[in-house]
Predict the structure.
Amino acid sequence: MDENRQGMVIPKHVALILDGNGRWAKKRGLPRTMGHKEGCVTVEKTVEIAARLGIEYLTVYGFSTENWKRSSEEVGALMQLFRYYMVRLLKIAKANNVRVRMIGDRTRFDRDIIEGLNRLESETKDNTGLTFVIAVNYGGRDEITRAVKKLAADCADGKQDPQAITEAMIASYLDTADMPDPDLLIRTSGELRLSNYLLWQLAYTEIYVTDCLWPDFDETELQKAISAYNGRERRYGGVK
Ligand code: IPE
Ligand code: IPE
Ligand code: MG
């Protein structure tokens, strides 16, 4: 693994649960949507920082399969933000040699959002720097369910043999096929749960939770998480 100038090992794949936009807004007497807007600015900054630090994969949880349960006003405002920030993100990705990928079930979004996501992926696919993965309408259980459906259909068609199913084969049916598992998971705003994020992929990931609310997250906070990660003794079930 590469070490940066401070002798720190930079995790290859950082997964982020960006939580606390609502609380950030509430603290300021603002509507929740203002927290989301500020949160989008933080996402843009984090992409640039991650690209500069040499992180290879950054996977950000932007909207879960459960987030549709929020009020129609909040869901509508989030969709508007996606529309706006997808255009900005394309520019940022191009300027920073970032490849964008989306995980989750995009089919539930409006046509123009689906087109925007497709465009983000196709126009950045040859970039060689950071891979920025956006998890939208993403749920770990939904991802596994879709993967099982596809694998079962391939077995029924005779393309796969049920007796030959391996962990690697299952992984190849997930949205994250050909991506390494996350080394470090960061969750902002203090909740100690996974909220249906990357259930398969986080099996041996180191977890770091900070009380920092997502819109307040910055390079110092990211460095703190990386430094905590450097102090961990990674194990995969074995002994040292
Ligand atoms: C995270 O912030 C953003 C999304 C889930 C879309 P929240 O909206 O969950 O903020 P809190 O948890 O209510 O503070
Ligand atoms: C997790 O945050 C989902 C995203 C960050 C997109 P939530 O705020 O939705 O999670 P819970 O409801 O606190 O578990
Ligand atoms: Mg939340």
Q: What stands out?
A: The chain has a mean pLDDT of 96. Residues 17-19, 61-64, 67, 191, 193, 195 surround IPE (ligand 2) (CB under 6 Å).
